[in-house]
Structures
1.
Amino acid sequence: MATSLTEIHQPLTVSHEEWIEARKKLLQKEKEFTRLRDELSRQRRELPRERVEKNYVFNGPRGEETLADLFDGRGQLIVYHFMFAPGWSEGCKSCSYLSDHFDATTIHLAHRDATLAVVSRATWPELAAFKERMGWKFHWVSSYGSDFNFDYKVSVSDADRARGKRTYNYAEIDFMLEELPGLSVFSKDQDGTIYHTYSSYARGLDILVGTYNFLDHAPKGRDEEGLKHPMAWVRHHDKYENNYFVDTNSDYVPPAPAVQAKPAEPLGHSCCSGEHD
């Protein structure tokens, strides 16, 4: 079990009646937040859409697949952009933490006319080996050789490297890590036309992490204050050990490539460090 940086915060100890009164006050704020979230979701659904003009091709367990194929016969496609570059020995630990939640939801999404697919730039054999190690079942495909990752702003391009800037989360940044995470959503009309309806990055992905949502209800919360970055404690689920402790000086370093075909990217903080809101 992981030890913590902090002790459990000790609030006031009160009578049951006082506790109920305090809880009711917070409940009003929680209800306000729920209504605000519902309104934000409504506005998200009303965003304009853009037609997808390129014919993206992916490679995976079914062989070559187009973006249309990834819909798997449904009208909506949700793509998680998983940080895994060609040559990396394993996928990003923070993306793995998030992806541990996927398998439980795919069956439910499928019954709401939505398909979840995970896309990375590593080759399919690299993805397949890591997927087997992690025991995941969700559909994961490689965009290697495609513009997909570059067009949806999760992989740094040669042009980005040349100018020392990249676009991420709709802003110009100099954070030149080779891969960054994201979520992109698409819809498909009956005539087969595909539209891009939404993309989100950085802390916009926070709501997808079920473990965080549980921790937010616990006395210690996420308990990440004082860490090198908020996800410094996260490990691949097969790397946690008994008496695991948080290394407060840890920083995310991309996995060492099996074959270093080009100079390593400049290192930065974790993809989910909170550096970018």
2.
Amino acid sequence: MAETQQTAAICSPAPLEKSSWLEFSTLSGIPGLVAGVDEVGRGALFGPVVAAAAILPDDALPKLMAAKIKDSKKLSSQRRTQLAEEICRLAVDWKIGFASTAEIDEINILQATLLAMKRAVLKLKVQPALCLVDGNQSIKDLLVPQQTIVKGDERSLAIAAASIVAKVWRDDLIMRLALKYPVYNLECNKGYGSQQHLLALQQYGPSPLHRKSFRPCKIKILDS
């Protein structure tokens, strides 16, 4: 498909040292704004899968590189929050999209992830010339040209930025939901299958926001 084979660049306004980030290497020569798109929460047992789309201006790239931006999973919670605030301040545009637990159970987690990504891109008020999508799956029925990049959050600044924004947004949501569902220790596990979370599922059963199609949530409550 021609759209998924396109490449694009965000040209730096000043000379930069050699970098492994794609924005400074193989993505070069095609003008236009580029959106990084990434998701978080795909492997969680609880809550929505969340995606972010972020468009960064040229002058933000060296700033974020100097700030040592990286894959959101490799950052501390405090550092992610700081970087997310900086990314949102510098971005030309950024938006969040998500797919609910009901949608995950209905269409499966892969399709729900792509739907969350599509929703994030469609919410952008500034239309990018190209979307860099983390992973190896293209977003279906997206009119904007796109390129998939495996391990994109380690290779593209725009994707890494989207990853951080999505992670912080989802974590904040789960922290609020933890107050409503205290037995699952969500404030610590963020909806993922920690030992305490799995034990709580066995004891209390799944909540309305657990992913019933995920095997750990298909359990019977233990007799008291």
